[in-house]
Please model this.
Amino acid sequence: MKTINAQAPSKSLGTPVSTADGSLTMIHPEHGETYHTQAGAMAEARLLYVESSGLAALWQEGPQRIAVLDVGLGLGLNAVATLTAWNEASNPGPLVIHSLEINRELVAALASGAAPWQERWPAGITHFCLQLRLESPQLYSAKVAHQSAEATATWHIHIHDAATTEIPPAPDLSGYTHVWQDPFSPEKNPPLWQAAWFSRVRATAASSCVLMTYSVAGPVRRALAAAGWSWKKIPALLPGKREWLTATPSAAAT
Ligand SMILES: C[S@@+](CC[C@H](N)C(=O)[O-])C[C@H]1O[C@@H](n2cnc3c(N)ncnc32)[C@H](O)[C@@H]1O
Model:
């Protein structure tokens, strides 16, 4: 990965680096992979996850019951982009996000509102993170009131190894409506790209669930198919990559 515009390193969290849309990402201190594309960290969160999934458009239609499984909270960009789109919709209905993250320090930094990558965030975005409270050693939660409608977003961050811990169930029995599949690359983090993982996610998903991810790698597509997901490549809306991937539970899968 390129390390353009690198700023002062943060010892345990990595080194902040500017991306093409002006938002900051971090370079992982151990394996050197960036948390986001250099083509625009916040733009990727919005364009790949919130918009290409159809979620932003769905909220324009009226109130929805949305439950998002956010795999790899990281710097929280996918979560805050989701909360921002929800807050901007005039009457979106309730939103629940369950974020999974193994790195406790990352979550504590995000909840402080003063993490290195939050430096350029508008106050309205940092506001979501400042609502996070430590509920138990493994759980931060926030309740966010919508800016104008009578609706609440609930954001839970679970600090554990997703590969070996039960996935938190979706708030209602029909399952997650959306999955943001955003771990580090299959080369750096194989367990969260294997069929066993996608089967577990499938078991928590609504029949109409939309899974979004940046990786179109052959092994990822085969693992999804083996786990009962129908995948489709879609055009990437940022430079540097031709395609992204979306998947939904196969009708035939049980
Ligand atoms: C590419 S980053 C995610 C970026 C993030 N979605 C965002 O919007 O900023 C991947 C994240 O997955 C986390 N992760 C890696 N392995 C994990 C595991 N087994 N369980 C939970 N989180 C994990 C990493 O610590 C890292 O923060």
